[in-house]
Amino acid sequence: MSPTFVIELYVFVLAGFVGYQVITRVPPLLHTPLMSATNAISGISLVGSLVAAGAGRGTATTILGVVAVASATINVVGGFLITDRMLRMFHRADPKAPTRPPAP
Amino acid sequence: MSEFVIQAAYLAASVLFILGLKSLTRPDTARRGMQQAAIGMLLAVIGTLLNHQIVDYKWIVVGLAVGSLLGYPLGMFVPMTAMPQRIAISHMFGALAATLVGVAEYHTESAALPTARMAALGFEVLFGSLTVTGSFMAFAKLQELMRGKPITFPGQNILNLSLFAAALGGFGYLIASPGHPAVFYGMIGVALLIGVLMVLPIGGADMPVVVSLLNSYAGLASAATGFALGNTVLIICGALDGASGFLLSILMSKAMNRSFRNVLFGAFGGDKAAAGSRTAEGLVAREISVEDAALRLAYASKVIVVPGYGMAVAQSQHQVRELAELIERRGGDVKYAIHPVAGRMPGHMNVLLAEANVPYDRLYDMEEINGQFEQADVALVIGANDVVNPAARNDPGSPIYGMPILNVDQARSVIVLKRSMNPGFAGIENELFYDERTSMLFGDAKSSLTRLVTEVKAL
Predict the structure, then answer these.
(1) Which residue of A has its CA nearest to B99?
(2) pTM of the model
């Protein structure tokens, strides 16, 4: 096991732990936005796809990379937009508290 | 220098993502937090574009443009009622990206891959490809491109397990000697098949668990991509995504009092013979007229609305809100009781009611509201069945025995809006419908509610 791999394993375990702790406190009310939010964030595979698409390692790799870039971008663009659309709908009844956030 | 900028961008992105998820613990902070997370994503992408390995931007622009063109309508125009299938298909895109990157990496380096990277790549394409087909199947079932009922055949579990063993065998072989493309692509083929077979036997009401589980797999595939490419931001996001999906699937399974194994291999609800030991023979359901139901609701001081998948199917959330507002204007108090697995994905009912402009402080989780049914004058059940079936509490022979339910049967009176007397998804009779305090209002939920609104208005 290379030292880099060990560090990566630390990162993975700690990030998973942080994720678990944070997400445990997300109320069931927001479980659907949570799913679409994690979907949007998982579009980060874009950073891997971008390199595959642009590194000029031959036609096959470029094609695979471009399709991967497109798929990941769908999740990034669609995911953040739909999460925002959903969260915009949640508002309180209490008239003193701010109701709908101002339109973008 | 550029390497430093890239890493700084990744670090900032990771922090913004975690803060974004943390903002989701409160509805009033959630929106801003997720907007910041979107900025984090932008930083990560810009950072990556500085990578010196990238020599040609032409195709990158094409990919980004196509993705944005397809992603924009998927984000802006998909109706809230289609959210479960929308979420399912996005798991497919995420997993597809991870799988293709894995294939591209293998294609470039194959025989020269060191053991640890080959292991990471193997995980990546295994999880990735089974998530691709699994999510597509879930999408097809939710979109009703195919029957939502579980599809089972003899030897199904044995076939699945042997395919899984074959995939793992190929994986082990590749770690030992990576230079065998046939084994690599064969393993992907088997994993794609496993994805299909895994979702075939799963019925509509079990979808919340499966969609969450696929969310988790998509996350693990991205994390493996991170290990394969040595990219920490991918590892962090994959871990966050994986943890979130895992946690949601545990919560959903608990809300159905079933184990993962039972959901994945049980094919619950396909087997009518397994239905409850008690039947409805000799029992009579009391029907109520719209006028009487409207009277009862109009003069109730405390009403608890229990929405279920039937409300989503009839798309009647707006009529529900209208009725609730009328009752409130007459001095009644209306609350909504949301069962964790009501609908087809975690939080399904909450999103629909929020869309209909119901304030979120009126939406109560099962634990919060279960003690309040005793004081409720009317419990209004709209297209919910198994989540209000008292058999879960008092019939050990019932397949849903032990599942936590909403205590609707403790309300002073119950009005059930239902299309017909057909049993629900699990094929189990619901004795709540035959209780002497229960009245049935048959018909499509939307038209029943519209008529109730008209009647209450006229009072």
Answers:
(1) A68
(2) 0.88
